[in-house]
TrEMBL record:
<feature type="transmembrane region" description="Helical">
    <location>
        <begin position="325"/>
        <end position="348"/>
    </location>
</feature>
<feature type="transmembrane region" description="Helical">
    <location>
        <begin position="112"/>
        <end position="133"/>
    </location>
</feature>
<keyword id="KW-1133">Transmembrane helix</keyword>
<dbReference type="InterPro" id="IPR050558">
    <property type="entry name" value="PTS_Sugar-Specific_Components"/>
</dbReference>
<dbReference type="Pfam" id="PF02378">
    <property type="entry name" value="PTS_EIIC"/>
</dbReference>
<keyword id="KW-0598">Phosphotransferase system</keyword>
<dbReference type="InterPro" id="IPR018113">
    <property type="entry name" value="PTrfase_EIIB_Cys"/>
</dbReference>
<protein>
    <recommendedName>
        <fullName>PTS sugar transporter subunit IIA</fullName>
    </recommendedName>
</protein>
<keyword id="KW-0762">Sugar transport</keyword>
<feature type="active site" description="Phosphocysteine intermediate; for EIIB activity">
    <location>
        <position position="26"/>
    </location>
</feature>
<keyword id="KW-0808">Transferase</keyword>
<feature type="domain" description="PTS EIIB type-1">
    <location>
        <begin position="4"/>
        <end position="87"/>
    </location>
</feature>
<dbReference type="InterPro" id="IPR036878">
    <property type="entry name" value="Glu_permease_IIB"/>
</dbReference>
<dbReference type="InterPro" id="IPR003352">
    <property type="entry name" value="PTS_EIIC"/>
</dbReference>
<dbReference type="InterPro" id="IPR013013">
    <property type="entry name" value="PTS_EIIC_1"/>
</dbReference>
<keyword id="KW-1003">Cell membrane</keyword>
<dbReference type="Pfam" id="PF00367">
    <property type="entry name" value="PTS_EIIB"/>
</dbReference>
Length: 456
């Protein structure tokens, strides 16, 4: 086996093969849950061959092997373990047991929203294609523009359907029921929420309540998925099997929709709007303060694992304004840390260490920063601090330029695709990324001797 030495050293670090309770992998990391965390030898864990870093978070011992390589390591580990991984669902159950309430909420939101990102990324890219064609001088007739609107607007017009489906699936219900309730939330018979907000339509008035569609709503759709799942399971505990096929879905859908339309819906819509608007207000604080803070500290959020929850804000921004400043600020934050990592790697005299540091940083170009953060930058507060300062500078320049993207889900080099509709915006995107990278690189280089000493 190619990674036999790595796996053997990993076993030594975690207290032996028999101490492994469960394991899984993501795009870059091998995640292991142990029976006894006290048996871990941290020094050995940080020096597992082929691993670019190690950290412990939310009950998981995470070894960063990088994109592609982690799949091979996992496959060989599975062979050695005799294929004894309990499966992704059991792994998630084990993870949830180790989370505090806040972490559980964030993880649930991530499990619901992350599967939607490919669809939303596609929508953003299609917007970029449309903009690029117009920028190149292509004249589109009304029918062609209408076709493009169908391609770019559908995902957001039916966003509650996608979220209700994903939430119902997450909570163990029948996803088809979630789809049906989601469709009812945006049914054409209900006045369009955007049209009502713009004054172009009037809400329905039932029992003295103003009823509108839920176009663009996020939290109501999540609650719908949770309710329909719980009701379906509860009714099945006492409804006779011969009646289950008809009665259970009828009651689950009817009760869920009634509660949402007349009780929870109006409250959740107001609460969701207030929360999202407050966060957006903080980001857009005067003099670019919010941009500076977010650009500097976004990668700190990645370390905590809370960054998945930011997707809610991005979806709301795109839905309400068609623009997403968070994608831009996330990229400059990455670029600052990337520049700091490259600057630090060139300080290593040992060619192997230098090569490992650079290889840990490269995935950042494609939007994956964990190898860089845990393998290089967090090993020296000076390096990590330099990346923060550089990201903050990039955030301020972004504020001065007024730069935003048209999509979400992709950053750094792939993120260029979100700016193809406007050459000036693309040049500005490259410029703020380069400024952040250069600042991070130079800040590390001027501290060369002190940083080199901290890595010993």
């Amino acid at each position: 086996m190619k990674y036999e030495e790595s796996i053997n050293k990993l076993f030594e670090a975690v207290g032996g093969k028999e101490n492994i309770q469960n394991y899984e992998h993501c795009a870059t990391r091998l995640r292991i849950i142990l029976k006894d965390d006290k048996k871990v030898d941290k020094e050995k864990a940080e020096n597992v061959p082929e691993s670019r870093g190690y950290f412990f978070n939310t009950g998981q011992h995470q070894f960063i092997f990088g994109t592609g390589k982690v799949n091979s390591v996992y496959s060989e580990l599975e062979q050695v373990m005799g294929g004894s991984a309990n499966g992704s669902d059991d792994f998630k159950d084990n993870v949830y047991q180790n989370l505090n309430p806040v972490q559980r909420v964030v993880r649930i939101l991530a499990d619901i929203l992350v599967p939607l990102i490919p669809a939303l990324v596609t929508t953003g890219l299609l917007m970029g294609v449309r903009g690029l064609l117009l920028e190149l001088g292509l004249n589109m007739d009304e029918s062609t523009l209408t076709l493009f609107e169908m391609l770019t607007d559908t995902a957001f017009a039916f966003l509650p359907v996608l979220i209700a489906y994903s939430a119902t699936r997450k909570f163990g219900g029948n996803p088809i029921l979630g789809i049906v309730v989601g469709l009812m939330m945006v049914a054409p018979q209900l006045p369009n929420a955007w049209a009502v907000a713009a004054g172009n339509a009037d809400p329905l008035v039932i029992f003295g309540l103003d009823i509108v569609g839920y176009q663009g709503s996020i939290f109501p759709a999540i609650i719908v998925g949770w309710m329909v799942s719980k009701l379906e399971k509860w009714f099945r505990t006492f409804i006779p099997q011969m009646m289950d096929l008809v009665v259970t879905p009828f009651l689950s859908i009817t009760i869920t929709l009634s509660v949402m339309l007349f009780i929870l819906g109006p409250i959740l819509q107001v609460a969701e709007s207030a929360v999202i608007n407050s966060i957006v207000y903080l980001i857009e604080a005067p003099l670019g303060i919010g941009y500076i803070i977010f650009g500097g500290l976004q990668q700190l959020v990645v370390i905590t694992g809370l960054h998945h929850s930011i997707g809610i804000i991005e979806i709301s921004l795109l839905n309400n304004t068609g623009e997403n400043i968070i994608q831009t600020l996330t990229t400059v934050s990455m670029a600052g840390q990337f520049g700091a990592a490259i600057g630090a790697s060139l300080l290593f005299k040992d060619k192997v260490k230098r090569s490992n540091a650079i290889s840990s940083a490269v995935p950042t170009l494609f939007g994956i920063t964990e190898p860089l953060l845990f393998g290089v930058n967090l090993r020296s507060l000076r390096v990590f601090g330099s990346g923060i300062a550089a990201g903050a500078l990039g955030g301020f320049v972004t504020y001065l330029l007024g730069l935003t993207s048209t999509g979400m889900g992709i950053t750094f080099l792939p993120g260029l695709l979100l700016y193809t509709g406007d050459w000036i915006a693309m040049i500005q995107y490259i410029a703020v990324t380069a400024i952040s990278f250069t600042a991070g690189f130079l800040l590390v280089r001027v501290q060369g001797s002190a940083i080199r000493e901290s890595f010993k």
